Amino acid sequence: MITLIRDQKQIVVDFSFWQQSRRERYKQLIEDAGGVWKLIYLSVHADELHRRLNIRSKRFYERGFFYYGRNIDFFSEWF
Prior knowledge:
mainly alpha, P-loop_NTPase, 2 domains
């Protein structure tokens, strides 16, 4: 990623970035490499988030991903 930015290539980082600290680290990396970052937030209705997270929880349960139902409403307040 850094090499591409330094070579003035446009890139897209497709990642959830739900942790603000991780977003900040990526922004700093991009700026330090001479790039300009743009965060694109895709608004999704809470019901759709619940549906997707239920599916994801079933796929990733063995790796420790847990989805506790309506707790997404609590976490969504952080964005």
